[in-house]
UniProtKB/TrEMBL annotation, chain A:
Lineage: Eukaryota, Cryptophyceae, Pyrenomonadales, Geminigeraceae, Guillardia
Species for this entry: Guillardia theta (strain CCMP2712) (Cryptophyte)
InterPro entries: Cyclin-like_sf (IPR036915), Cyclin/Ssn8 (IPR043198), Cyclin_C_2 (IPR031658), Cyclin_N (IPR006671)
Protein name in UniProt: Cyclin-like domain-containing protein
PANTHER family per record: CYCLIN
Example GO molecular function: cyclin-dependent protein serine/threonine kinase regulator activity
Alphabetized UniProt keyword annotations: Cyclin
Record flagged with keyword Metal-binding: no
Source taxon at top rank: Eukaryota
Domain called Cyclin C-terminal: residue spans: 212-297
TrEMBL record, chain B:
Keywords, ordered alphabetically: ATP-binding, Kinase, Nucleotide-binding, Serine/threonine-protein kinase, Transferase
This protein's name: [RNA-polymerase]-subunit kinase
Biased composition (Low complexity): 330-339
Organism of provenance: Guillardia theta (strain CCMP2712)
GO cellular component, one term: transcription factor TFIIK complex
PANTHER family, sorted: CELL DIVISION PROTEIN KINASE, CYCLIN-DEPENDENT KINASE 7
Superkingdom of source: Eukaryota
Length: 388, 350
């Protein structure tokens, strides 16, 4: 028997999913969240850097790049010390994230990962950077982590091996030790990856079900081929359209549409686009009206939203230009990575030490306060209250 | 500010009482949510960093699936958090009673089974099927149905649990392991090596558990260390050999066994005490051909649920099972009942 449950059901089933409840946003909200993530990280980096500086000035100077940060309002205690870290801007944030998003795609391509693994990985990546900044966690590391977790989530065969480095092996299509396919992308130590796996899961709120547009696409095509009239879709045409639409969808995933629209809407638009290219608009509109009961206009509106998003995406840097900029931002990132977030950060240990001291001081203060209260109470009980 | 972004460790929201279970994945503890006084179970999953696997796929599956299923008859997941590096904690409803305990409950003084009224069985089945239907509508296969995975809350509500083996289906190339599902509740197509299967595999398990409630004993029990072939024999001895007529294409499955021409035993003889409508539903659940096997949605519309007696209310069930909770005498014995107690007819050795 087959497992193919290609029916339009997904639309109804999508209601109430974590995907629908927590991970569909408006364009404006996306911008807000990204700005917040960048701002919070800037504040964090400044706060911790200054704490480290103060702690370090007792022993040695910490190794941080300092400089003026144009356009960034000073809102941390560094105002007092007058030192401000040169954080990456929101725009730079986007460029560096885009660069490594391309990395997710190229890795997925080299490894011939199926569409569902690829789309899940990309969705995780995009969801992650709504709540974190590239200064918190480097996108290169997150690129590996999302692929790693997406393979597990989608049950892609990935029996991973090795002790030191995790890479994706092209031939066995596994995560394994040092594969040439990975030369352009570098490696990530396994301990680091496993720590980031937990960070990723937490930032994703442990919502791991991603609904892809591929299933509704199959569902719509299935409906279309099952029609009994002359508008029935022939099987050979169907497979051609499916192939083209799937390719188109994979390409669309680079933009933000999966964070804005429902998967079935996206699927329908991809179908419409593919049909238009094949000069089958009339047949598509008919199918739309009869089988799904929606009008060409309503799909058209969604389609415009997609077009807008894709157009915005096309404006972004590409190719060599993207690479040059990314290299520059990468260098800048070295000076403004958040020392609190990752254990491999050179100053992580020092920071932990500062935190421990802070905690101890707070505890001490609390104990003092309790002792003080107790003394006062005892005095009250002994009737010496107000005696002084 | 950096520290303002820090959230309190969610672990501190709970007061852990004591351990209630232990598995390969880690430890389950009973705990109290401090704010509400609610009883919860915290399942701690230890991550195995030594073999560099990180969060295991079964933990990922369980979290992934339970986060999506919201149904009164499916155990809810309250929260997932990581109390410290290397551990994941799943906060679930705390429900100490399960169907296995109810089926096996005996009165210690008389050594007789505590009766399960047919209204109760009907209500259990209805809640069970609703839970399964919710899974299947979300493209989730449970794949490990057995009485111990049907929990009963003190309010008399049945809840499906343990999604550690569950999978989502619907992707075109997904092949599954034919090894899932506890042996006694595994359908014939899986035993014969089918690696492409759908919701029907769960429905066979529903049938086995339905029969078990009626019989008070497993329908197809096999001994410790039994193999897949033993299980096939056990099923075929009762249900007869599959034929090209009742299951077209069964000989195309990876494992081909030569069956003797054993005729099926009528279910009315296997479970003589069961009413006719119950047997009809059971027959449809235990259809060899997975394509002909009744779905959860159809099963809920079966006349069994419309005919008298009406299913017991949750209040009635709560009342009935409260007796089991209170009486320490109705302890469940851990050993399996001997097959001598089975109401199965004598059959020729195969």
């Amino acid at each position: 028997m087959t497992e193919e449950q290609g029916d339009g059901l997904t639309i109804a089933v999508f209601e109430g999913t974590t995907h629908q409840r927590y991970w569909i946003f408006t364009q404006e909200r996306l911008a807000e969240l990204r700005a917040e993530a960048n701002e919070t990280a800037c504040a964090d980096v400044n706060e911790w850097t200054n704490k480290l500086r103060r702690a370090g000035s007792e022993e040695q100077q910490p190794d941080v790049v300092l400089g003026p940060s144009p356009g960034k309002k000073a809102r941390t205690e560094c105002e007092e010390s007058g030192v401000q870290v040169d954080c990456i801007t929101l725009q730079e944030e986007q460029i560096i994230q885009d660069y490594y998003l391309e990395g997710v795609f190229s890795l997925s391509n080299k490894l011939k990962l199926p569409a569902n693994v690829e789309t899940t990985a990309i969705t995780f990546y995009k969801r992650f950077y709504l709540y974190c900044s590239a200064m918190d966690y480097h996108p290169k590391d997150i690129m590996f982590t999302v692929l790693w977790v997406a393979c597990k989530v989608e049950h892609y065969p990935s029996r991973y091996i090795n002790a030191q480095k995790v890479v994706l092996n092209e031939n066995s299509r596994e995560f394994s030790f040092d594969a040439p396919a990975f030369a352009d992308h570098g490696n990530i130590p396994i301990e680091h990856l496993l720590r980031l796996e937990q960070v990723l899961l937490q930032v994703l709120k442990y919502h791991l079900m991603v609904h892809h547009p591929f299933r509704p696409l199959r569902g719509f095509l299935e409906m279309w081929t099952k029609r009994s009239d002359s508008m029935k879709l022939a099987d050979d045409v169907k497979s051609k359209i499916e192939e083209k639409a799937t390719k188109l969808l994979r390409d669309w995933m680079k933009s933000d549409i999966l964070l804005i629209l429902h998967p079935s809407e996206i699927a329908l638009c991809a179908l419409r686009h593919t049909c238009a290219k094949a000069k089958m608009e009339a047949a598509f509109d008919m199918f739309l009206k009869d089988a799904i009961g929606s009008s060409a206009e309503s799909v058209g509106r969604v389609y415009e939203a997609i077009e807008g998003n894709l157009a915005a995406h096309k404006q972004r840097l590409k190719g060599e230009q993207l690479k040059t900029e990314a290299t520059r931002i990468n260098a800048k990132l070295q000076g403004c990575s958040n020392p609190e977030k990752e254990r491999s950060h050179p100053q992580f240990a020092l920071l932990e030490e500062i935190k421990r001291k802070e905690r101890e001081a707070a505890k001490e203060a609390k104990n003092l306060r309790i002792a003080q209260e107790q003394r006062e109470q005892e005095m009250r009980l002994l009737g010496i209250d107000g005696g002084r | 500010m950096g520290s303002a972004r820090k959230k309190k460790n969610p672990r501190k929201h709970y007061k852990v009482l004591h351990e209630v279970g232990r598995g390969t994945f880690g430890v389950v503890c009973k705990a109290i949510k401090k704010k509400t006084g609610e009883e919860v179970a915290i399942k701690n999953i230890k991550l195995v960093h030594k073999i560099h696997e990180g969060v295991s796929t079964s933990a990922i599956d369980e979290i992934r699936i339970m986060q999506e299923l919201h149904h009164p008859n499916v155990l809810s997941i309250h929260e997932v958090f990581s109390p410290r590096e290397g551990t994941l904690s799943l906060v679930l409803d705390f429900i100490p009673m399960d169907m296995e305990m109810i089926i096996k409950a005996k009165d210690m003084t008389s050594d007789k089974y505590v009766p399960m009224p047919s209204e109760d069985i009907k209500a259990y089945m209805q809640m069970f099927l609703r839970g399964i239907n919710a899974c299947h509508q979300n493209f989730v296969l449970h794949r490990d149905l057995k009485p111990a995975n049907l929990l009963l809350s003190a309010n008399g509500v049945l809840k499906l649990c343990d999604f550690g083996l569950a999978r989502t289906y619907g992707s075109p190339n997904a092949k599954f392991s034919p090894q899932a599902v506890t042996l006694w509740y595994r359908p014939l197509e899986m035993l014969l090596g089918a690696d492409r299967y759908g919701p029907a595999v769960d429905m066979w398990g529903v049938g086995c558990i339905f029969a078990e409630m009626l019989l008070r004993n497993p329908l197809f029990p096999t001994g410790r260390g039994a193999t897949d072939v033993d299980q096939v024999c056990q099923i075929v001895r009762c249900m007869g050999a599959p034929t090209e007529r009742n299951w077209p294409g069964f000989d195309q499955l990876p494992i081909l066994l030569k069956f003797q021409q054993i005729p099926p035993t009528p279910l009315a003889r296997v479970i003589p005490a069961a009413p006719k409508d119950a047997l009809d539903l059971l027959d449809k659940l235990l259809s060899y051909d997975p394509n002909k096997r009744i779905s959860a949605e159809e099963a809920l519309k079966h006349e069994y649920f419309r005919n008298a007696p009406a299913p017991a209310s949750t209040a009635q069930i709560a009342d009935h099972i409260s007796v089991l909770i209170k009486k320490p005498s109705s302890q469940v014995s851990s050993t399996l009942p001997s097959s001598g107690a089975l109401a199965l007819p004598a059959r020729p050795p195969s």
